[in-house]
Model the fold of this input.
Amino acid sequence: MPQRVAVVGAGAVGGYFGMRLAEAGHDVRFLMRRDYEAVKAGGLHLSSHLGDMSLDSPTIERTPEALASHGPVDWVLVGLKATAIPDIPKLVGPLLSEGTRVLAIMNGLTVDDEIAAQLPEGTSLFGGLGFIGVIRGELGRILHQEFGAINLGHHGDDPDELQRGVDLFAGSKVEIRPEPSLLRARWEKLCWNIPFNGLCVIAGGVPVDQVIEEPPLYDAAYEIIREIVDAGNADLEAHGETVRIDGPRIANQFLTQTLGMGAYRPSTVIDYNEGRPLELEAIFRQPVQRASELGVGVPMMSMVASLVGKLGG
Amino acid sequence: MPQRVAVVGAGAVGGYFGMRLAEAGHDVRFLMRRDYEAVKAGGLHLSSHLGDMSLDSPTIERTPEALASHGPVDWVLVGLKATAIPDIPKLVGPLLSEGTRVLAIMNGLTVDDEIAAQLPEGTSLFGGLGFIGVIRGELGRILHQEFGAINLGHHGDDPDELQRGVDLFAGSKVEIRPEPSLLRARWEKLCWNIPFNGLCVIAGGVPVDQVIEEPPLYDAAYEIIREIVDAGNADLEAHGETVRIDGPRIANQFLTQTLGMGAYRPSTVIDYNEGRPLELEAIFRQPVQRASELGVGVPMMSMVASLVGKLGG
Done:
């Protein structure tokens, strides 16, 4: 059944997944700022190795109130940077009605708890971890460069709700990997983001091949992943969860995948090179803080967090 | 007995120690390029917490041949960057005569062997490790900011020769610490240079207080020192030397000293911030290479060397 979807934070990530939902037949509406005029005049365009597509005259508005005037939605897809979490009541609130679900595709360890605290009690919240290389091109254009999957979890780990999220993307070009534990999924994503977003920034804002193909940096990435696995598993235990991160599997998977990525630039590198604020809290400081609370030693991860903090502060 | 001293590489370090020798009564002559006109017109000036001084009309020349025309010298004090070692025959050669000794105050692990290979057989060569914060100011001006000692060794570890080097500085404001093993002294200096020159560059070209006062970076520095001590002691053993680096003592000494340095910028940071070539080989790559040859694992040091290489390459 086609769903009504509002996309808030229609940058590269939100825009991409919103377009793929529209392509699959859903009624997708976009909150736009920077690109509003261009999209109004010429439509929204996607260049992608999975197939180009365009929406010639999508429903777009400049304010959440205006977007809400198009009628209620079943889903709000949030593609904001973690630094914009305080704006969620203002940006998402007007779009919520009885039964509206929220899917936040954002980085961070505690981002789900933070968003939940900003939403009305009982809102069903999903966390999506985007494994995707996608950037904004010219106004109204999105350039999809790599991958395109979402590891999807439910805040509360309700399996029936999780299935609703999986169903939303059925028939779309988005690969959905359901995650029985959202907390584990978050830690697993950090196993990539901390070493690679971190070391690529520290090495001067370079793409991942400059890190993964240099043996001492490959070794450092491996060691950082090992520390994150330890911290993540301690956190899962502290939360009373029975699942664990399979450290050797995740390290092998991420290092191997990264070796195949070529000159891919992680999001933090793009932010760094363009002088934008870095997602320091979401990607670096929260996990270090949590490891400290858990009493897990994470010297490499802490060092990376400190260095990125110096560079992005 | 006053000595005749030629200073080659009269930048901040060479200029400073040359001026202190002149102040102590020696006949010091300077090879100058950038500052030649300014010094000819207005003299050479030193601002220092150990006492300001000036040389109103020092003997200066633009070429080693012109400097040699002032007569033979007992010592050549070499203050070049390690990157200038290939120029030593051209710059130092014309100044050498029977019995001339060479004191190179330069960074690096293999710098003494490299310089010795460029000098006539039998030249008595000394290695000086400057522990000093000194920079060039306006033309003809040197600004001495911190410390001012030389750890002095003899290439060959001849104790009688070493004493000659100590005697040269007797009565000057330069504190000389004789080193019975030049190789150990070099590794010990790297115990400061690698962590602090390295991390300060990696953190964006910051002064040492930004590193030493941030616990994860302090811990990283400690770990890097530990690795260097292991590699250095293996190198001493491989060279058949009986002396060893006292790891806990050197770590404690350097970390404590650095906590007192405030906003001091290591030489590599100054080079980095001014866009000059970094002493990658001398400070970072040679020790990593040597540790690898010795089979000593140095992951943190290797990571730092790789990152600085990315930033300075």
Q: What stands out?
A: Residues 184-312 of chain B form a domain with the N-(1-d-carboxylethyl)-l-norvaline Dehydrogenase; domain 2 fold (CATH 1.10.1040.10). DSSP finds 13 helices and ten strands in chain B. Chain B has two domains: 4-180, 184-312.
